[in-house]
Write a structure and sequence with these properties.
Layout: H1 12-19, E1 23-27, E2 39-43, E3 47-48, E4 54-59, H2 61-64, E5 68-72, E6 78-83, E7 97-102, E8 110-117, E9 125-130, H3 132-149, H4 158-161, E10 173-176, E11 196-201, E12 215-216, H5 217-233, H6 240-253, E13 255-256, E14 261-266, H7 300-303, E15 307-309, H8 319-336, H9 341-356, H10 382-399, H11 404-421, H12 433-443, H13 448-469
Parallel strand pairs: 3-9, 10-15
Antiparallel strand pairs: 1-2, 2-4, 4-7, 5-6, 5-8, 8-9, 10-11, 12-14, 13-14, 14-15
Length: 481
């Protein structure tokens, strides 16, 4: 699954705990006796200066009953100490007590050592404190490099990856009707080869998806839009603009404005008895181009990969896809407005065209994601439309386009609809509400009531993220595996 969330400096405080709480469990005791060593859980990325900072001590009740903590700086001087917070409950049968360690007073940039005192603790756990940019920019750079290794088509990064161009047949791909899929085995194709419907179309380039060579509009638009948001808000990330443009070029190929068609997918996932798909063969991507096959051969659709549409030409588009693709194009308009205004206007017009084709009365359960849909399931779509409208508004504002006010009003209306009718989760390909809400708050001039509701929903998502990604504020007694 393609995930790229690099919060800008203005959003870091709100999302650090939920999104960047990559944590590690480190043994802090020689243990002994009949219980496991105590452990401390810290943020593996580090803690942002000026923010609340918490670590967690984990052990049994007796181990931690009288324990305190001590923080030492790089010179061995004491930088903090105190008592553990009250027990939050048990993590599991081994760690029956989890207690918070408040490190908020440790705010000077540096690397520190944290240890428990009075819990037979011998080992120490290291953590960092630094400004947000110092902590997060290396993560952003790593993410850019990761997506560079996932490139498909002619423009691969051979020097960095040793890869060679792949799937050059995607330059003249054929469009197919979606295959019938079985209910088992991850959507294995049932019956004969899917039937050809149109083409050729150029769908070359882009990025591979999660562990395979398929390419999806659903996930790529999600990633491209987040990359461009980061280009807009944090333009110093090395290589990010060009990597975003690489994904954007492919996304542009998946939209045929002349016929009003959005293509949703390149490649067949799982084949069946008569044909093989991407998931049926373990190989390097360039091996697909070297196959010698003819129509009807089992591997024909591995070399000549099918393209599946999100909508029939000229027909409405599933609103989740229309929304996020429109948002990506509108963000391209924003990031190009200053230096390439003519190109930016073209992106804004494409974004408006996709947005206008959204089916805003979709059948229940009929949202289009992938073929088969269980690769990426989605149940919400008003968040995608909100995201599109607010980015269209911002793009119009950057270009002095008179449509700004209308799109801003529509962004607020979609935000109200999303809050009223959809209960999403946290940020991910199935729910982009956090991204949409944040930009509505900062650019769409919401009234006081809507602003308060959006902030409450963002707070809920952060708290949900803390509960599911780390200990956070969860009543830990519920975690009793």
């Amino acid at each position: 699954m393609n995930h790229f969330f690099s919060p800008s400096a203005r959003t870091v405080p709100a999302v650090t705990a939920a999104v960047l709480a990559a944590c590690c469990l480190t043994a802090c005791s020689g243990g002994g006796g009949d219980h496991a060593p105590a452990a401390v859980r810290v943020n593996q990325v580090g803690y942002v200066s000026g923010e609340k900072k918490f670590a967690y001590a984990m052990g049994d009740g007796k181990q931690l009953a009288d324990a305190e903590f001590e923080v030492l700086d790089e010179r061995g001087n004491r930088a903090g100490h105190g008592r553990l917070g009250p027990s939050l409950g048990g993590w599991n049968s081994t760690y029956t007590a989890v207690r918070a360690i408040d490190l908020s007073a440790v705010d000077r940039t540096g690397t520190y050592r944290l240890r428990l005192v009075g819990a037979d603790a011998g080992a120490e756990t290291r953590f960092r404190v630094a400004p947000a940019r110092r902590l997060l920019d290396p993560l952003r750079a790593d993410t850019v490099r990761f997506f560079g290794t996932q490139r498909d088509g002619e423009d691969v990064l051979a020097d960095a990856t040793g890869r060679v161009p792949s799937h050059l047949t995607d330059e003249r791909a054929r469009v197919y009707e979606p295959p019938r899929t079985g209910s088992e085995a991850g959507g294995t194709t049932a019956g004969p080869e899917p039937s050809e419907a149109a083409g050729p179309v150029d769908v070359s380039g882009g990025w591979f998806d999660a562990g395979d060579f398929l390419k999806f509009t659903h996930t790529t638009s999600y990633v491209v839009a987040q990359m461009l948001s980061t280009v807009r808000d944090t333009p110093s990330v090395p290589g990010l603009r060009e990597e975003a443009r690489h994904g954007l070029r492919w996304l542009d190929r998946m939209w045929d404005g002349a016929t009003g068609t959005l293509y949703a997918q390149v490649g067949l996932g799982s084949g069946g008895e008569e044909i093989r798909g991407d998931h049926d063969v373990w190989r390097l991507p360039e091996e697909d181009d070297r196959l010698t096959v003819a129509p009807g051969d089992a591997d024909y659709l591995i070399k000549y990969r099918p393209v599946f549409r999100a909508n029939e030409p000229g027909e409405p588009i599933s609103p989740n896809l229309a929304g996020r693709v429109s948002a990506a194009f509108a963000l391209a308009a924003q990031t190009e407005a200053a230096e390439h205004p003519a190109e930016a206007r073209a992106w804004l017009d494409k974004a408006a065209a996709v947005y206008a084709r959204a089916d805003t009365s979709p059948d229940r359960g009929a949202l289009v994601t992938t073929t088969p849909a269980d690769y990426y399931q989605e149940r919400t779509w008003r968040d995608d439309m909100e995201w599109a409208a607010v980015e269209l508004s911002r793009g119009a504002d950057a270009l002095g386009d008179a449509r700004r006010s209308r799109w801003s009003e529509e962004a607020a209306a979609w935000a109200r609809a999303a809050l009223r009718e959809e209960r999403g989760g946290t940020l991910g390909p199935a729910d982009v509400g956090a991204l949409a809400h944040a930009d509505v708050l900062t650019s769409a001039d919401p009234d006081a009531g809507l602003a308060a509701a959006l902030k409450a929903e963002l707070r809920r998502q952060v708290e949900t993220g803390e509960e599911t990604r780390g200990l956070g504020s969860l009543p830990v007694g519920r975690r009793t595996r």
